[in-house]
Write a structure and sequence with these properties.
It is a single chain. The chain has about 325 residues and is an alpha+beta fold. About 20% of the residues lie in helices and about 25% in strands. It contains four helices and 20 strands. The protein has a five-stranded mixed sheet, with no helix packed on it. β14 (about 250-255) and β15 (about 265) form a beta hairpin.
Length: about 325
């Protein structure tokens, strides 16, 4: 009994010593925990504040040197070559209705484009149509300049309205591609039967009649009066004018219809040195030709193979230019 009691007592003592040792270990652990936390926190702070490692910059690729300029070239030409390309220039062929049909009266080039459509300035047409009464200073945006191009050259278009710049200058719209053909129609107003704002065939008879010009020409191939005849005049249909011609002894002037050859009877006034004809309401081309008095016509030389008289079968006489002797000036 006593032995069993002694064993129990010894067991209790060992448990007490183990518990005491455990308490010491736990106490030591509690004293070490703050230090451990501080160590971990310091490591995290160090990790956050540590600067990032530098990233090496890429090595730039070498830029090739530009080719040396050709010193033999003209510097101005070199600058021109490098300039930004402009729109392709197109040729604008200009027409007017003259003596019954369309006649080419000039050309102009343009590389100006607006909204995909070529155009020219009205002032550029002064040198072409000035002799036909046009002046850009008096132009107000009328549809006087229909156009067409190579796609359908027989149809005239007046559907694009002229535009006025801020400085008052007018732009004449053209086609979107070349070649371009421009027609001067000063009669294309709402007061004429052929007026149009869309398209119309250029062969329209009323269109031609409403916009026709007629020429007034002095023909003197034999130099009976003029070594160089006066410059032909151009007159809009229905217009009036006067023509003054020099007088020479033995020579009179005759006016004829340039289309039919019919002799015209025009009002006339004379002085000792000149004769003036009045033309009213012109409706055909007019030619003035000198008529030489009988017996004054002679030839400069006799054609080879012909007799003294221009008798058949000699035809070379027709190719000769007659020389009409001019009277010597009368002495004072």
């Amino acid at each position: 009994m006593y032995a069993a009691s002694g064993r129990k007592t010894e067991y209790r003592r060992r448990r007490a010593r183990r518990a005491s040792a455990l308490m010491v270990v736990l106490a030591l652990l509690f004293t070490m925990v703050p230090t451990g936390f501080a160590t971990v926190a310091g490591a995290a702070e160090a990790a956050e504040t540590a600067p990032p490692e530098p990233i090496p910059e890429p090595t730039p690729e070498p830029i090739p040197e530009p080719p040396a300029d050709d010193t033999t070239d003209d510097p101005a030409a070199d600058i021109t070559d490098r300039a930004a390309p402009t729109a392709t220039a197109v040729t604008v062929t200009c027409y007017a209705a003259v003596d019954g049909g369309w006649q080419q009266v000039g050309t102009v080039q343009t590389d100006k484009i607006d909204s995909g459509r070529y155009y020219i300035m009205a002032a550029e047409l002064d040198g072409i149509y000035g002799g036909y009464g046009f002046s850009s200073a008096n132009y107000s945006g009328e549809l006087f300049f229909p156009h067409t191009d190579g796609r359908n050259a027989d149809t005239l278009w007046a559907d694009a309205l002229p535009q006025q710049n801020t400085d008052g200058a007018w732009r004449i719209p053209l086609s979107k591609q070349g070649p371009i053909y421009l027609y001067y129609l000063p009669g294309n107003t709402d007061r004429t039967p052929s007026y149009f704002t869309g398209s119309k065939p250029k062969t329209d008879a009323q269109l031609l009649a409403d916009n026709m010009f007629y020429t007034i020409t002095v023909e003197d191939p034999a130099r009976a009066v003029y070594d160089t005849p006066p410059v032909p005049q151009v007159l809009f249909h229905g217009g009036s004018t006067t023509v003054t011609l020099d007088k020479t002894e033995g020579v009179t002037w005759t006016a004829v219809n340039g289309q039919t050859g019919e002799t015209l009877s025009l009002p006339m006034t004379e002085t000792e040195t000149a004769v003036t004809y009045t033309i009213e309401n012109i409706n055909a081309p007019i030619r003035f030709r000198p008529r030489v008095a009988a017996g004054m016509l002679q030839y400069e030389a006799m054609p080879e193979g012909c007799t003294a008289a221009p008798a058949p079968p000699c035809t070379a006489w027709k190719k000769m230019t007659p020389v009409i002797p001019k009277p010597s000036p009368t002495a004072p």
